[in-house]
Amino acid sequence: MKIIVLVKQVPDTYDERKLDPTTGILDRDASEPIIDEIVERAIETALTFKDAQKDTEVVLLAMGPDALTASLRKGLSLGADSAIHVLDDGLEAADLVRTSAVLAAAAANSGYDLIIAGNESTDGRGGVMPAMVAERLGVPHLTAIDSVEVSGTTISGARETENGSLDVHATLPAVISITERAPEARFPNFKGILGAKKKPITVLSLGDLAVAETGARSVILSTTERPAREAGKKIVDEGNAGVELAEFLAAGHLI
């Protein structure tokens, strides 16, 4: 089995995330770029299959700037076999439509039995990329599933909803996306870290992929910075603090 894991590099969750006020594009120098935590869980899901079936090949697929190499190397240190990096200046400010077209083209070019992604990234939180890639490839997709099993050519999983749980299944090839209920990623060992430096990363440009879209369909017209937080109201107990607190909560429709 050949599994492709979609990888995304995001700004560190604990750092300030900023947009360039002129272009509306993410300021990549404002915070440390890291591999998305949900992507690590997706890699772990793929590696679990590999642990059970030793002939499984796990390939990482990502689109982004040069700095993305560090995140791919981390994924390789966890146990993935190789990586594909779509790198092209023409992809700057690519929207979801453009990105899905490129990722689908790269996946088709590589070949796959299963594509695994996180249900949503921690920066954009679009939550639609796995479904868009599946639609472009013309294969079934199981989205936002908590657990995954493969039996022969059938993949199945459980999806939690507000009203209960759904058992879903599809025939391979397919695309799935996992949630934060999937197992956490394993820690890379010393051997894995050293071995990652020797594992191949194939770099592709737009010229290597036959992608119909020539540019992003979404254009950022303006950006507004998040306003600074205002100081809260301090209540000093002079015998009526309970009343003042209740009035404050009621005014904010909190009770």
In short, what is this structure?
By secondary structure, this protein is α/β, with parallel strands linked by helices.
Which characteristics define this entry?
single chain, 255 residues, alpha/beta, 3-stranded antiparallel sheet, 25% strand
Account of the protein in words:
The chain has 255 residues and is an alpha/beta fold. Helices cover 27% and strands 25% of the residues. The chain has helices spanning 37-52, 68-78, 96-110, 129-137, 190-196, 241-251; strands spanning 2-7, 9-11, 33-35, 57-63, 82-86, 114-118, 141-145, 147-151, 154-161, 164-171, 174-178, 201-204. The strands form 3 sheets. Strands 7-11-6-1-4-5-12 form a 7-stranded parallel beta sheet, with helices on both faces. A 3-stranded antiparallel beta sheet has the order 8-9-10, with no helix packed on it. A two-stranded antiparallel ribbon has the order 2-3. Helix 2 crosses helix 5 (190-196) and helix 3 (96-110) packs across helix 4 (129-137). The chain is globular, with a radius of gyration of 22 Å. The N and C termini lie far apart (55 Å).
Structural class: alpha/beta
Which sequence of SSEs, written as H and E, runs from N to C?
A: EEEHEHEHEHEEEEEHEH
Helix content: 25-40%
Question: What strand order characterises the main sheet?
Answer: 7-11-6-1-4-5-12
Strand content: 25-35%
What's the average pLDDT? Answer: 90
- Let me know the number of strands: 12
pLDDT < 50 runs, ≥5 residues: none
Rg measurement, Å:
22 Å
First-residue to last-residue Cα separation: 55 Å
> What's the story with the biggest beta sheet?
7 strands, parallel
Number of helices: 6
Principal-axes geometry comes out as: globular
